[in-house]
Amino acid sequence: MRRRYAEVIRDLLWQRHRLRVSDTLVSAFARTPREDFLGAPPWLIRGIPAATMWQRVASRIAFLQHHAHDWTTCDPTQLYRDVVVAIDPIRGLNNGQPSGVATWLHLLELQGGDRVLHVGCGLGYYTAIIAAAVVPGEVIGVELDAALASQARTNLTEVNHVRIVVANGTEYDPGPVDAILVNAGVTHPQALWLDRLRVGGRMLLPLTNDEGKGMMLKVTREPGGWAAQFVSGLIIFHCVGGRNPELCRRLAAGFTEGSWRSVQSVRRDPHDPSSQCWLHVDGLCVSKQAVSRRN
User: Fold this and answer.
1) Global pTM?
2) Which of 139, 55, 39, 21 is nearest to 94 (CA)?
3) Residue 288 maps to a domain
4) Total number of domains in the chain
């Protein structure tokens, strides 16, 4: 069931985005038991009716999604579908949609031996998948909620190259890393994250408005600076310590008018606001200007 689930994720990413997911990432999804990271059943599944099952269409496996509603199940096979599963319904904390997170992990270009920071690791399911994709590297999962972090640490006991830290992800210093996945919405890149990316390192972080709506920004550190581009839309819960109320309004305007398509970099050099600045903040700027190619 897990192998079929992983192959469906591969198929969905190709159908939706023409992304060719690596065998390594598909195997990571196939080998990681999702039910081990969601607490005891019954599980609350968001958005797929229980009657929906696998179906072959034109010799390819596809998901059928009908009228969205929440439902509970004690059957672990129901978790191996492209569904969101509630971790804490009252707070709106979920184990995210597999095809969406798989898209982010694909865009992170994970490689064996990478050192990865996962901010907002929750109960550790996607942290485990990252770990399987970067063997023999290292993964640091950071979680502000001590109870979630404790459970994630238990869930990942047998994964030796994962470390779970209870901390605010905007303040925790992981040392140099090759990749960062931020799993909660911020209003601007954090200087610490930019500084800790090695040259060639990749980061994905959601820039979101007051309602948690926004876009995922991919940042790549090059010899001449930090290249950046928006790669997908999303809705996600807020990152504590990573938000500025004034920037929320500016982000909402930028997303509405479509100017986000012009973003090319994150600038760190001192400069005055100009038409080349998409989101200007003291100390950094999400910019329409390309990265310098100088070494």
Assistant:
1) 0.90
2) 39
3) no
4) 1
